[in-house]
């Protein structure tokens, strides 16, 4: 996890402090790291066990003084908002987490994590995703719902085929880390 967090640190230190969102926040490490660097850091997690772990980790980081209280917030649910079409593929190597994601999604269909967080995708300055979802879905989400100038730090874990939307520019391409920006 140190490689992605090092890249996240570089992004957070080179952009004006704002709002970051970890799409699939797992145990909350990136959210905690973002808050440590002064950002308002949010996370959305689909796995109930990982969500619980992230809540515990954030509480411990606050108690230990590593982060200021109130800079972080985690919500349980699907980071794809209602009405967003998630594309699935039958090729296992291209959609390696398909069955797990579909199972989790069935359990939290009615939850809207953005309501719980009190924030919309159009308010996020930096998105972070340690890949469990297909890259084309994440890039389309940013393309369709993020504000102009939003940054996506993407940590690839599977080899998948994808098209970069015309309003997304890849700023840095160094497998497995990729940095994208939404343009006009």
Distance linking N and C termini? 32 Å
**Which parts are unreliable, with pLDDT below 50 for 5 consecutive residues or more?**
none
Which band does the percent of strand residues land in?
Answer: 15-25%
Report Rg.
Answer: 15 Å
Counting DSSP E segments of at least 2 residues, the number of strands comes to 7
Largest sheet: 7 strands, mixed
Helix and strand succession? Answer: HEHEHEHHEHEEE
| Secondary-structure class | alpha/beta
Shape: globular
Our count of helices gives 6
Q: What number is the mean pLDDT? A: 88
Tell me roughly what share of residues is in helical segments: 25-40%
What order do the strands of the largest sheet run in, or round the barrel if closed? 3-2-1-4-5-7-6
What oligomeric assembly is this protein in?
single chain
């Amino acid at each position: 996890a140190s490689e992605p967090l090092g890249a996240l640190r570089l992004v957070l230190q080179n952009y004006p402090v704002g709002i970051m969102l970890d799409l699939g926040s797992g145990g909350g490490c990136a959210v905690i790291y973002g808050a440590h660097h002064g950002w308002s850091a949010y996370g959305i997690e689909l796995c109930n066990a990982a969500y619980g772990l992230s809540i515990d980790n954030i509480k411990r980081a606050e108690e230990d003084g590593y982060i200021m209280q109130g800079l972080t917030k985690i919500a349980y649910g699907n980071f794809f908002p209602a009405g967003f079409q998630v594309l699935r593929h039958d090729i296992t190597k291209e959609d390696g987490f398909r069955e797990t994601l579909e199972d989790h999604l069935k359990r939290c269909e009615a939850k809207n994590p953005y309501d719980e967080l009190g924030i919309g995708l159009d308010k996020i300055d930096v998105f972070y995703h340690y890949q469990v979802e297909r890259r084309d879905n994440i890039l389309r989400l940013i393309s369709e719902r993020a504000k102009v100038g939003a940054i996506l730090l993407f940590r690839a874990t599977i080899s998948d085929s994808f098209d970069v939307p015309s309003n997304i520019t890849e700023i840095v391409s160094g497998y497995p880390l990729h940095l994208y920006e939404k343009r006009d």
